[in-house]
Amino acid sequence: MKKKVTMFVWNEFTNDARVLRECTALQEAGYSVYLIALKSKHKQPAIEKREEGFHIHRVDDRILPFRTEWLYLIALCIAYMAPLVGLVCAFLLLLFSKTKVRFLIRKLILISKMIILGMKAKTDIYHANDLNTLFQGIICAKCKHKKLVFDSHEVNTSRSGYDSRIYQIAEKAFIRFPDCVIHENYTRAKYIRRIYGFTPEVIYNYPFFQEGIEKIDLHKKT
Membrane-crossing residues (predicted)? Predict the structure, then answer.
């Protein structure tokens, strides 16, 4: 039986080349991939099977009537997450204290729905893409005693829109929980080594292989 990887990504998954390549690479390696993403206001399918062979489930920010999924989440919180209550509250306070209430509610709904889907999934490994899904990955992996991979696509503390100290504190607090951290190149990996004291694995963001494409050494062009 194939091992299953459940991925989280904080976008609508319309043109995310790295996540697409990761999904297809895992498929090629014999894994079954289930991707949890966001749903925009456009006509995107909530549930989609890609031609590459993996499945996507997109969540929106609508407040649905009380359903068994919410009861399920509440029960899990009581049964499993008591030791993490302080961590959860600290994260939410740090991440959302300066935002508007409406924005906060929307984010909480999306995070809750991602956690619900992640907890319901029969999976062997969780995979969080970027800092904004690491929290969801930690909750699911720790509650279900599964492995967690954190793919930090960027240097989060230097990204546009992520320059607040809030994100530095959040990443420092959460980055010790994953079983494996991966980065896009060795320069960024060395930076993580310098500020957090460990060296993440490096997986380059190579495109799909195409026959007949001329190779160009950009270093020689400069």
Answer: 70-96
